[in-house]
Amino acid sequence: MKRGGxxxxxxxxxLRKGAAEFAVLSLLGxxxxxxxxxxxxxxxxxxxxxxxxxxxxxxxxxQAEGRIEARWEPxxxxxxxxxxxxxxxxxxAMAAMTQxxxxxxxxxxxxxxPASDPSASDRNLSE
Length: 127
What we know:
- With 127 residues, this protein is of the alpha+beta class.
- The protein has a single domain, classed as Arc Repressor Mutant, subunit A (Orthogonal Bundle).
- Helix content is 60%, strand content 18%.
- It contains 5 helices and 5 strands; from the N terminus they run E-E-H-E-H-H-E-E-H-H.
- Helix 1 packs across helix 4 (88-112), helix 2 (35-42) packs across helix 3 (52-64) and helix 4 (88-112) packs across helix 5 (120-126).
- It is globular.
């Protein structure tokens, strides 16, 4: 759907790509989790658009890059579960992303203003 002369869904997809990795690393920074747990934790963030079709390729890529590692654990309620956790490289990446996000958010909020007040962008630029 076009809004304001742009294909808004394509623009939103680009936002989601970077945010998905940051969200997964952040969750794994709290504790190790298996795939469905990650999906459940992310289910409240509908705007991220993370599904089983996107989470597993992302986990595979993060594992190939050495940012996460996995182990299999037997489950009493079904098949074994593959648990993921951050590696030291993943922890460093998450810390760098957290810092970059904080800086980015401050600067974007300064320009755009809080989402609930579109007129704030005019005030912030004149400050």
